[in-house]
Backbone:
């Protein structure tokens, strides 16, 4: 449906940019579809046709913001690489904006595809770390085990269980996984 | 603010019951505050004053529905008890109603207290299992380790990562935790 570089892609970029600008200017609670449409230079019906409602639009914008911008840092060893990545992941996801994006991504996501994309971002970053380690000849766990042992506990505590969210916790999860 | 057995408690029970009845009759999407108020015999402003909006009310109702009704099954050993509990937890939470309650609990929860209550339910059940094992003289892990190793991966996959959600997965998480 979306032709990259086509009108559809331009509309998406304009609408996402309008949400980011208006949120920065007047905050999250003040956002409305007509206001976003006006800023993006499209009609409200264009937004409703494409996104259904504001929550689904905010979910798409949140997923874009959760997309990693750089490959994980290379510190020369699996444990160091995973620890650095886990610490940064926890720091970003447990920050107020990180929590807001996770909530938005989950809430306006009837088919679960945006939540799945968030998990795919983490899996892709972990794949890069595991691939580097394998090239170094290090034994590597399966990516799903890293998601279960490191990513899942951090996300569970961010969403359901306050406390325990410091860099030492992220490192401990990695150490427990790698034994 | 809530006097158990007082008017406040009666209002809560009537409103929660009205939500459950109306949802069963006409489904989740059809729920409105005026309709719920009429069924519960209260004014809409009573609901808005107490719950803020429909999403916060649905979050409270969802948390009530996620409250365990019976203590975890006693199979006479830590591994068997944890496996049975994890299998049942996964079965209930990954079912369509379970997923809907988790979503509701998270969405209408500005201060995170309802999500925290969901986690406390799981921790309490696990505490019972660990307490029994300790009385039998079995070595027991810390409850937070059980949450990280068993509950978190299941909840993470329910919310973010489809697939892998079968009883064998729940048992494998327990086996990995207990070594």
Residues:
């Amino acid at each position: 449906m979306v032709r990259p570089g086509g009108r559809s892609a331009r509309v998406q970029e304009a609408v996402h940019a309008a949400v980011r600008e208006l949120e920065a200017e007047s905050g999250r609670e003040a956002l409305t579809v007509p206001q976003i449409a006006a800023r993006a230079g499209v009609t409200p019906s264009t937004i409703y046709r494409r996104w259904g409602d504001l929550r689904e639009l905010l979910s798409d914008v949140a997923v874009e913001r959760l997309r990693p911008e750089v490959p994980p840092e290379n510190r020369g060893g699996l444990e160091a690489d995973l620890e650095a990545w886990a610490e940064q992941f926890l720091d970003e996801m447990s920050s107020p904006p990180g929590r807001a994006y996770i909530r938005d991504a989950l809430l306006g996501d009837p088919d679960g595809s945006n939540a799945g994309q968030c998990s795919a971002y983490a899996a892709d970053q972990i794949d890069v770390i595991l691939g580097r380690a394998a090239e170094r000849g290090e034994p590597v766990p399966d990516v799903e085990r890293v998601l279960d042992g490191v990513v899942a506990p951090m996300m569970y505590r961010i969403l359901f269980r306050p406390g325990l969210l410091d860099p030492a916790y992220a490192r401990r999860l990695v150490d427990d996984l790698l034994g």
Summary: The radius of gyration of chain B is 19 Å. Chain B has two domains: 7-52, 78-178. Residues 78-178 of chain B form a domain with the Tetracycline Repressor; domain 2 fold (CATH 1.10.357.10). The longest helix of chain B spans residues 113-135.
